[in-house]
Design brief:
This protein has 220 residues and is an alpha/beta fold. It is built from ten helices and five strands. It has two domains: 2-124, Rossmann fold, CATH 3.40.50.2300; 151-210, Orthogonal Bundle (Arc Repressor Mutant, subunit A).
Length: 220
């Protein structure tokens, strides 16, 4: 059973998402919150697997709440909810540790799939808009005094895999591109994330753009 908390300051949106998720036999909504501070408190009590997090909330916003949650021992997976497909705050939320994002007009089945993907430990990178957003803002919103990402620690193959991950390719697509097994790709991805000290594929995409390994609009 996937335990979910829904955080959004709009009651209708919050209740709507919670109601939809509650229809799924493998998903349990264990709490809701109208602001970031309450979201952190609720998550501390309920220990969810996934948090659907709005960005713009009063008081503690979704970005700060995400930062606080991903710094806890429980480290729930955070799925950002946004009204705008090119909301600059989404990039900040990913830097804070979010694993992906969804537009609030997402279809029900896509919502269910997203929660399952995030709960399984993957990052939600499938929508083209995600890659466009990261490409647009990665070079404009670098964090202050960033820790250097040691791309030199990667093997040539791991660097190639990072480029393809940044293009939004899935493991099967990368395997087909490189003519290797999917299991080999999984190994390369895992080693790449470990060497760079990254949590998931979303952060890998950000790192690829921030380091200049991938340039917006380019394909390698």
């Amino acid at each position: 059973m996937i335990r979910v908390v829904v955080a959004d300051d709009h009651e209708v949106v919050r209740g709507g998402f919670a109601g939809l998720l509650a229809t799924q036999p493998d998903i349990s909504v264990v709490g809701t919150a109208a602001d970031g501070a309450t979201a952190v408190e609720v998550c501390g009590r309920t220990r969810p697997d996934v948090v659907l997090m709005d960005i713009r909330m009063p008081g503690v916003d979704g970005i700060e709440a995400t930062r606080r949650l991903t710094a806890t021992a429980a480290r729930p997976r955070v799925l950002i909810l946004t009204t705008f497909d090119l909301d600059e705050y989404v990039y900040d939320a990913i830097r804070a540790g979010a694993s992906g994002f969804l537009l609030k007009d997402v279809r029900a089945e896509a919502l269910f799939d997203a929660v399952r993907v995030i709960a399984a430990g993957e990052a939600l990178l499938a929508p083209t808009v995600t890659r466009r957003l990261i490409a647009q803002f990665a070079l404009q919103h670098r964090p202050q005094a960033p820790a250097p990402v040691a791309l030199s620690a990667l093997t040539p193959r791991e660097t190639q895999v990072l480029r393809l991950v940044a293009e939004g390719l899935s493991n099967p697509e990368i395997a087909a591109r490189l003519v290797v097994s999917e299991e080999t790709v999984k190994t390369h991805v895992s080693r790449m994330l470990t060497k760079l000290g990254l949590r998931d594929r979303t952060q890998a995409v950000v790192a690829a753009y921030e380091t200049g390994l991938v340039v917006p609009g380019a394909r390698g």
